[in-house]
Design brief:
The chain is α+β, with helices and mostly antiparallel strands. It has helices at about 1-5, 15-30, 85-95, 150-155, 165-170, 170-180, 190-195, 210-215; strands spanning about 45-55, 60-65, 70, 75, 100, 115-120, 130-140, 155-165.
Length: about 220
């Protein structure tokens, strides 16, 4: 089922096409695709991300992730035999305490993710490869966001609404090299925030910024 969901995605560009083919080949190899032990067993496994956006104001909600030292969306590992969209909704509820409406720029109702990525983690005690399925959820950026859930406090330090223009205008290579060379300095307030902006692609909606453009279409 998961392979069919991935294969149903129309790639936006060659990079996404390559990622889709990589994931489908990986699933066809009969590898264990679900994480069974933290952090890296097996070393390549499925993740669902819940990317919260305000399409009217063209903003993305990101969180300062304590462990990764990056700005990331909510999300987590897909449990064994769990449907990826169900996993995304579960993580959204567990980490933020919210149940939100899924969003599709083309108004299609589907269980397929908006896009997929294959990325190696960085600054993690046990490096591994996340095969990430990205789902969009809709929220009004003008509404106050609060979360008193214990898991939120365990996972995140703060949250930020970033405009699509902020994301697209951040130099990808500069952000990456700055993070790699000055990780300690990255932990200092606002500098960390913008240096890590494009690291959503240890995630890749930033590194592969065409996905932001695709939302705008």
């Amino acid at each position: 089922m998961i392979k069919n969901l991935i294969a149903s995605i129309t790639p936006y560009d060659q990079l996404e096409k390559d990622h889709i083919e990589n994931i489908c080949d990986w699933i066809s190899s009969n590898a264990n695709i679900f994480r069974i032990k933290k952090d890296a067993l097996p070393p390549k496994h499925l993740v669902s991300y819940t990317l919260i956006i305000d399409p009217d104001w063209e903003k993305v909600l990101l969180f300062d992730h304590k462990k990764a030292k990056l700005m990331l969306p909510s999300g987590g590992h897909i449990e064994i035999n769990e449907i990826p969209l169900i996993a995304a909704k579960r993580e959204l509820k567990e980490e933020l305490g919210y149940s939100l409406e899924t969003y599709s720029p083309d108004n299609k109702e589907t269980e397929a993710p908006f896009f997929v990525t294959v990325t190696k983690t960085v600054e993690i005690s046990e490096p591994h490869t996340d095969v990430s399925l990205w789902y969009l959820f809709k929220w009004d950026a003008n509404k106050s966001f609060t979360s008193k859930w214990a898991e939120y406090d365990q996972e995140f330090d703060d949250f930020h609404w970033l405009s699509f223009d902020d994301i697209l205008s951040t130099p990808n290579r500069k952000a990456w090299s700055t993070y790699a060379s000055t990780s300690q300095e990255n932990q200092k307030g606002q500098k960390m925030r913008f240096r890590n902006l494009n690291q959503l692609h240890v995630t890749h909606i930033m590194q592969h910024s065409s996905h932001i453009k695709r939302i705008q279409v």
